[in-house]
Design a protein that fits this description.
Number of helices: 7
Number of strands: 16
Strand content: 25-35%
Shape: globular
Oligomer: single chain
Length: about 375
Amino acid sequence: MAVSGVETAELAALLMEWKDRSGLSYGVLAKRLHMSASTLHRYCRGEALPPEFGTVERLARLCRATPEEQAELHRRWIAADTARQRERERKGPPPPPAVPVETHAAPVPEVRRQGLRVALAGAGAVAAVVAIALLVGLLTAGGDDGGAAEDLAALLDDGSAEDAPLAVTARPYAFDQCEGRYLVDLPPAQVPPPPTETDAAGWVRALEAVPAGEQLVELAVQGTGAETVVLRDLRVRVTATGEPLPWELYGGYSACGGGPVRTSAFDIDLDAASPRPTAVAGQDDLPLWVDESEPLVFYATVRAEERSVDWYLELDWSSGDRSGTLRIDDDGEPFRTSAVGDQREMNYMIGGTEWLDAETGEPVSR
């Protein structure tokens, strides 16, 4: 889609600066990013906006952008993506998704965004359901069984999502280059190569995979107006636990080097009796604040070393005399993270054609 605007131009200027600084041609960079050179050229000239942040994030790593530069990149991408969304809403709602989505709340406008986008309005209310590519973000009305009716009543009483002061984009399968381990109940012959970060959500959904041992969830939070929105608290709700899944363990690409390590803002130990996000040393803890011009991005690193856990997040917010609670889950269902047992791990060589035993390097025959 051809795009224009100050926000997209500012993002493109940063991409062009890094491209020139890297000394690499469009062809070389595009090959490493698994896209065409013409597409990359359009991104750097501001003639198109990448559909998701993961694309420009990988370009930043290839061009050896500093952590400060990557933070600025994310700020500019959010601004450009928000402007694109405003333009889409001005032109009218997009066509309905190819696959019908069953919602459990009042109808709301469809918004196509990377990851999970959630907007809230009114006291204690969940206000929107948003569909995107292969990852559909769905806010449900209930949490625990005993509070479902109360939560639904609050939802119906709280009005339109158009009044929401807050929007959240979450990527539940974020990971650094070459990372990401998954448990899949399928043999190697039926499992495609590891996904890139961009493709992780679709890969996970298609295979019904479960993050193994650790899951990185990225949350990008932005106010939808000039008023300040305070993020008061972030909670973990566990809905079920069990033994570690005995499925096959698939890792990422072998010998690819990886990218710079990203520091998570919160750690979550799912093995604890009452899991709770803990701010990483040196990171700001809640309460935090956002508005339209000052978005916030942070990461939650979720770990399970003893059991399989179904869970979701709740984010409390307030703005003036309004307040609410945002449930962040996976397509209306809890996230699922499982500890790893004693099964072997398999990985995949870049440019390879089959899964290999991570310990021996030998092809896996079954």
